[in-house]
Amino acid sequence: MREARPSGGAAVADKPATAGTRAPRQKPAPGGGDPDTASFAAWLDAVPFACAAYARDDGALVAANRRFLDEFGDLPEHTQRERLLRGLHGDGSADAQPIEVHAPHNGRWYALHWGDTVQAGRALALLTAVDISERIETLDSHKTQQEKLLFTSRLMSVGEMAATLAHELNQPLAAIVNYLNGSLRLVDQAGGPVQVERALQAARAQAEHASAVISRVREFVRAREPRRDAHELPAIAGTVLELLRLEAERLQLRIDLALAPALPAVYADRVMIEQVLLNLVKNAIEAMREVPAARRELRVEGRVNLDGEIEVRVCDRGPGLSAQDQDQLFSPFFTTKTDGLGIGLAICRSIIEYHEGRLFFEPRDGGGSVFGFTLPRAQGRA
Ligand SMILES: Nc1ncnc2c1ncn2[C@@H]1O[C@H](COP(=O)(O)OP(=O)(O)OP(=O)(O)O)[C@@H](O)[C@H]1O
Ligand SMILES: [Mg+2]
């Protein structure tokens, strides 16, 4: 039996076996039949919310209505005010009104209101607990909807632009490739010159590359439904660096992976985060094209930041960014590269914001850039 401390209060009784049913109020406990408290308890029973009265002096439960016992009777702390508060939200203070708490014993959300009253000369703190789970769930689902919409609308605008671009560019690109093939045949038949042949081949390769880039963007933008789960950062980073290993070797570029030991798992769609990291590392590699080989150092760091999120940082020794470029960095189609689309960072930002994280830039100590993002931990979510 749970300990209950009725001071003659009829309603301070253990929860009946038929939890949730509205059993008739129990008779006053033998010997404890204080008629004032009994009528007070009857009055509490008429309140359509969970309701309980605690003594102001020692915090003991004095009376409670049936609904309170049904909903909080399973929480061992319900018999004492400070213990109840600690059990529900970690501390015994009740300064803010109402206090919204997530009850651990039944998973419901409650708004707790405290009021003062005096009953039979005893100062009481009167608690009303209103079940607000439905409101919280609706709010949560609206928030998720909004996030999804924001994400989808960003991707859609990028997607629409990509589709238009693909439509506008595919035809002329195909024509260019055809003309180049024709010219190559003519040069071949005429027997040279070899420089012209090489130039034509290079031009064809570039045109083919351009169509490949367009179809890649279209493919990405036709995004599948994201699926978030618990994932280990070392595995994600490993996949991405493996994809870029050959390119890094060709450019005589060192990639250091510096992940803090025992990083907690992130709550993320793995493919999307790989996409983000790939974009950032590619940008970092491209930023060091003109940098002397000895200085081409790329570092991928992972750690838990002060807010308890997982933070990934891609650090390069490239030229960094002017203040003006920093302002436009994440806008779609901002690029300073002749072969860039300017779409990489815009997509990264959509993905990271969808994951409730932040994509950021900061100058690197000693020269270069740091592009980083944060992700929530999986703990408690996946
Ligand atoms: N690590 C970096 N160092 C310096 N500048 C950078 C870096 N990363 C991005 N930038 C700047 O931001 C611009 C936009 O980057 P973003 O990845 O969006 O597009 P992009 O690399 O130009 O083209 P793509 O769409 O192919 O990725 C780049 O053109 C470059 O000017
Ligand atoms: Mg890029």
From TrEMBL:
SMART domains noted in UniProt: HATPase_c (SM00387), HisKA (SM00388)
PROSITE patterns named in the record: HIS_KIN
Statement: the UniProt record of this protein carries the keyword Kinase: yes
A Pfam family it matches: HisKA
Molecular function per GO: ATP binding
Keywords per UniProt: ATP-binding, Kinase, Nucleotide-binding, Phosphoprotein, Transferase, Two-component regulatory system
Stretches assigned to the Histidine kinase domain: 164-379
Superkingdom of this protein's organism: Bacteria
Matching InterPro entries: HATPase_C_sf (IPR036890), HATPase_dom (IPR003594), His_kinase_dom (IPR005467), HisK_dim/P_dom (IPR003661), HisK_dim/P_sf (IPR036097), Sig_transdc_His_kin-like_C (IPR004358)
EC number(s) per entry: 2.7.13.3
Catalysed conversion reaction: ATP + protein L-histidine = ADP + protein N-phospho-L-histidine
Keyword Phosphoprotein: yes
Spans annotated as Disordered: 1-36
Enzyme class, first EC level, given as a word: transferase
Designated name of the protein: histidine kinase
